[in-house]
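Minutes, methods subgroup
Present: GH (chair), OT, SY

1. OT presented the first of two proteins processed in the latest run. Sequence and structure tokens recorded below as shown on screen.
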Amino acid sequence: MKVVLDQVAKGAALPATSAAFESGRASLARAETEQRPTVLGPIASGRMRPDDGSVTSTARPTTARCADGSPSSTRPTSRSPPPT
């Protein structure tokens, strides 16, 4: 499985950050403060939705829900307005 975070951000807690993680490989995401790894991890795992940016994964879609009640998905997420 591969997870790609492209310019994900979450308020003041996480400025725009890009990273990629892949099964069977060790990865390091450098964070400048104590709070940032706590925010980056849930976004990368699909448990928290980013305010901006996108998260994509090669994993199968899931019907799980995030702590805030929003759907957890392996599809790309973005802050684009909903279709009209």
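2. SY then presented the second protein from the same run.
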Amino acid sequence: MRVARGLLAVIEMQRVLADPGSPWATSRCAGAAAGVARLLPDFGDRVVLTRFLARLAFPWRACHEQWPLARRPRTSTCGG
């Protein structure tokens, strides 16, 4: 196993992007998740997972009211 330097930042790996029934589905989410899975062993405990958390007081309030799926629980990830 190769040990990489630095951190691996994984951004927005949400199920809503992987679910074919979702209006926000993207065909490349599965490929991105596979790529991340290949990188994980090289970074060990130096992986940062992020995701957008909607707040209804946020300037995007109208968008989040229209798209309740944007307010899914923080455990809703694309990679499982």
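Chair's summary of item 2: The beta strands are 8-11, 47-50.
Next meeting: continue with the remaining queue.
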